[in-house]
Amino acid sequence: MLKQSGNKAGSSWRVLTSLLQINRKLWPQYVFLIICIILAAGIDVAGTEAFRRMISAATDSNMGALRESLLLAGGVIAGTVVLGSCASLLTEFVNYRSSVHLESLMVQKLLHMNIASHRNYHSGDLVKRVSDNARNGQIALNNNLMDGFRVFAVIVLNLVYLSAINILFTVSCLVVALLLPFALKYLSRKLNVIYGHKLDAESALNAFTQECIDGAEVVRTTSLGERTDSIFHSKYAEFMKWTKKGIWFESLTNQVNFFIRIGGMIFIIGYGGVLVKQEIIGVSSVVAFILVFWRMLNPISNAMVMWPRVQNSLSQLSRALEILEMEEERGIHNGNEMSRNSSEPTMVQFSNVSFAYSPGRVALDTISFTVKAGTVTAIVGPSGSGKSTILQLLLGFLQPASGEIRIGSALQAERDVLQWRSDISYISQEMYVFSGTFFENIALGKLDATLTEVMNAAQKVNMHDMIMSTPEGYGTLIGEGGLTLSGGECQRISIARALLKQASLFVMDEPTSALDGENEAAIFREFKNMIKDKTLIIVSHKPLRLEQVDQYLYLDHGQIVEQGTYEQLIARKGKYYNLLNGYEEEHDIA
Amino acid sequence: MKHKGASIFLRVFTYVKNGNNLLLFGLILLMVDVAFNIGIAKVQQSFLDVLNQGDFKRLSFYLIVFSICFLLAMLLTFVGYFFREYSFSMLTRNFQFDTFSMLNKLPYEELKGRHSGDLISRASYDVQDCCRHLKDGLFGIFENALQFAVALTYLCFINFPLAVAVAITGVLIFFCSSIFNPKIRKISSEIYNKESDIKNLIKEMAQGISVVKAYGLQSYFGEKYAKYRRDTYRLYRKSILTNVFMQQLLNIMRESVWIIGVFLICLSAINGEMTVGLVLTFTLLMSQVLWPFVIIADRWRTLNNSYGSAYRALDLAAFGQNSQSEKIEVTNPLLPPAEDIAVLLRNVSFKPDKSVEEPLFESFDLEIRRGEKVAIVGASGSGKSSLLKLITGLYRHDSGLITIFDKQVDGTSEVKDFYSYVPQHNYLFTGTISENISFGAISFDDDHIKRAAEAANADEFISRLEQGYHTPVKEGGATLSGGQKQRIAIARAMLKNAPLLILDEATSSLDRRNAMKIQRLLESLPSEITCIFVTHSPASLSFVDRIVILEKGRIAASGSLEELTQRNLLYQELFDSAEV
């Protein structure tokens, strides 16, 4: 999935056209910018003409003509400055707008894409594609494309100017100039592939750096960095390999450019010499040709360096567009105000739900169960039994291959996914805390929450006192770069957030994994009190034995193998009983 | 400021190491480029003279000689370019190796207190950025300065006063652009900060996506992003206006001087002081005297813009070194080595958050004998995990003495060989399962790995996987369950086979079946292995020699299971603390 597929040179046009489509709104600015650029090139030719007139005035010793041409030159400077300012301002404006537009589209995509597709990418890679590849790629592409127009205009206008002197000579100069794209075709294709590999190697490097930061505890206690260094070095060797190849071909591209530049000049003098000998043109015309050809050399050589760069930016952008093409979750995206559901407890029903991560890897096999309104259901089972899959299906992160899921009377397949989720308060296993204040983190559960509401929620999870003891109370920053919280504290924040949401259904993923030194029964009793008589589904790998649980589902290999109340399961003396018994025995020893 | 910038680049420059010769050759070959650029002006003049004289035989002879020179120059510039670029990619590599290894040597507390996005951009983007700018700046300035010098000298021979006037204007252009530099630098550093905030926001969105979705926070985060972007728009506008103003000012100066120069030469040609051929040469050389200054000014700006990234990258490297040398105050003299003590904490003080007055541990003492199995229990916030992190050296104590087998814990290497640590939050690296188990081990083979996995009860599930030990692990072990990750982490510790085993809630994310197996593994540890673990599961206390109950950073009670049960302390601690 991370590998780039297919021939990128061939997809360049496709990338380009989809980007044009994305930047529809900026078309007038782009057009105006192009006009500025073409006019500036025209002024440039006028500058050459002014220069030619000065020289001819000098050869003719015509003082009046020299003064006139000085006036023309002054006009050229004024025009250059005015048009140049317009072009620069527009360029920068368009660069910022288009790149930020693409980035914000990608941010939206990131927020709305299917979690299933999200998981196919390393999160570091995703971030790089969104914030680095998209923006820098778009800016580079704009610059290169506008340079392209500039180059095109300069070449065309100068050729028109030269044609006025001698058409045949001009055409043969053009033929020399046209050697460039031919030489370039092969080199750019090569470079394109190399740049793609280089980018992949670079993101592998960054992903590894990110891992070393995330796994800092492991790195610091297992090795002294020799091992991480050596892995990094071997990953870097791959990057270096492509860098070296890239330099080689860049250098070759430069040389081709150099060859055409000077070779062209030799050609003009040689061919011009022949023409002078045949007295078709005068020596002064050769001078003019050399001058204009020199004026054109820079744009042409720019085009040489620019085309590989366009390819490079397109290969960056195709990494970004790959994300934009990801499937989105069904439902509304612009966050339109939706009717809130009542927070009355509701029932949850799975009927004949199946799911497979990939063909042959069945995670859930025709599961059916009902959670009655206001009751507590615990889904237990060993790791990999399909517990989390049930949760992901319930949250709409995954879509069932077959079967139906209902909350109350609402059928999941028929409802907007955002609206569907508004019925659920989810307490994740990871207890993700975002950078921001305590207040902001809790208020994520209800965005228009007042401080009092947030404080109430914090009080319910016993975090209020802790929060008030920090220097800035609810305004204290937490998350990355802020105050570090313990696992238990993060979970409490996450429960407070869920409480604030006031949904009809609570879903809790591995509630006890982050808690230490605290009895899960006590925590749970407390939690049950907080949510009152709401419907609750708990997923746990432990054989929770809690008085409040009305129904247990024991899952194994994607199937519900046992189902019932605690008493029923005990009476059955099945898997749950065995699991619990093993636990009880040890408990007694303790 | 300029001096500081120069010294910073000098430090970056030392990373070129073995690429030194390549770089030197590359620089020497840059002279070929310059010579060719200047020579072209002279060559054209001679061609025109020959043309004017109508000597076509000499013209073809000149053309052949020039073509040969040209091919030679092409070869040399090709090699030169390759040398220059390659030596700089070597410099980048060496620099990046260094920042990467410094990143891993950064003290744990320091690392946790920083944005990981910031660290990554320092360790990779900043390094590459500053190296690229340094390369462009260095070569650009060198080539253009050389070109300027040669062209100016030549120009002086043709018309001295005019040459001096052109040179002065070049210098003026240069100074004019350097006036704007500080202003531009200030805005770009503001932009950089804002951009890194945005990057961090995007990173959190990507990582916390399940919470974002479950709470329907898409539009909340979408708007937060949009607000940040509105802020950057203002900054960019300011930056764009300043930049364009400066560029156009330079343009006016350059163009006016060029046109006035041409006018003056033409005037002298009319007065009969020059030929038309010389006018052409002079104008070509004049642009070569004016242009280098503009380019140098531009490259100078590039260098200045990259100063920030060079500084950030070097700061990371420097920080690692500084904190390594920071000494821990030892209040007690070293005790005579005690044979049977595995872990010793004497008079240890530790403040987890330096801004908070109250230390977590104060004059904390703890001794653990060799072979002793010790369980640490206590409510959350009592300091259990912190205690383990102090012993492992992840946290650095403020004062006092901590030793493991008589070796002082002070962030040096040798202590780490004596313990295996299984953290509470396990982290797996991208790679195979086998690579993850062997991460950190010095010598091992496949058999060792398998045995370690068996000991950690991981072999069972690993063998069932299609690719067995070579199954790839995705980011953070996303494809594995919590229990599987935990078992791999324990296998990692088993493979290291250190005399001291430290586990932080080793069984918290395991299901009962697996937890019991790990439990048995701990029970059956050889008697010479010392083991310390934090737990909240009463079941795992059955076999330990000693239980230490922590309460707000001090030992509330300590003793065997029987003693504590008799004193009725243990259950109170384990169960009642949670009854809020």
From TrEMBL, chain A:
Protein's cellular compartments: Cell membrane
Determine if Transport is one of this entry's keywords: yes
Keywords for the protein's UniProt record, in alphabetical order: ATP-binding, Cell membrane, Membrane, Nucleotide-binding, Transmembrane, Transmembrane helix, Transport
Q: Which residues form the ABC transmembrane type-1 domain?
A: 31-312
Residue ranges annotated for the ABC transporter domain, each copy included: 348-582
Q: Which InterPro entries match?
A: AAA+_ATPase (IPR003593), ABC1_TM_dom (IPR011527), ABC1_TM_sf (IPR036640), ABC_transporter-like_ATP-bd (IPR003439), ABC_transporter-like_CS (IPR017871), P-loop_NTPase (IPR027417), Type_1_exporter (IPR039421)
Identify its membrane topology class: Multi-pass membrane protein
Q: Which GO terms describe its cellular component?
A: plasma membrane
Membrane-spanning regions, if any?
Answer: 27-48, 69-90, 151-180, 258-274, 280-297
GO molecular function annotation: ABC-type oligopeptide transporter activity; ATP binding; ATP hydrolysis activity
Name of the molecule in the record: ATP-binding cassette, subfamily B, AbcA/BmrA
Species of the source: Paenibacillus jilunlii
Automatic annotation (TrEMBL), chain B:
Q: Name one Pfam family in it.
A: ABC_membrane
Q: Kindly state which keywords UniProt assigns to this record, in alphabetical order.
A: ATP-binding, Membrane, Nucleotide-binding, Transmembrane, Transmembrane helix
The UniProt record lists the keyword Transport: no
The segment(s) forming the ABC transmembrane type-1 domain are 24-305
InterPro entries named in the record: AAA+_ATPase (IPR003593), ABC1_TM_dom (IPR011527), ABC1_TM_sf (IPR036640), ABC_transporter-like_ATP-bd (IPR003439), ABC_transporter-like_CS (IPR017871), P-loop_NTPase (IPR027417), Type_1_exporter (IPR039421)
Q: Where found, per UniProt?
A: Cell membrane
Which positions, given as ranges, span the membrane?
Answer: 22-40, 61-83, 148-176, 252-270
Q: Where is the ABC transporter domain?
A: 343-577
Q: Which GO terms describe its cellular component?
A: plasma membrane
Q: What is its main location?
A: membrane
GO molecular-function terms, A-Z = ABC-type oligopeptide transporter activity; ATP binding; ATP hydrolysis activity
Q: How does it sit in the membrane?
A: Multi-pass membrane protein
The protein in question is named: ATP-binding cassette, subfamily B/ATP-binding cassette, subfamily B, MsbA
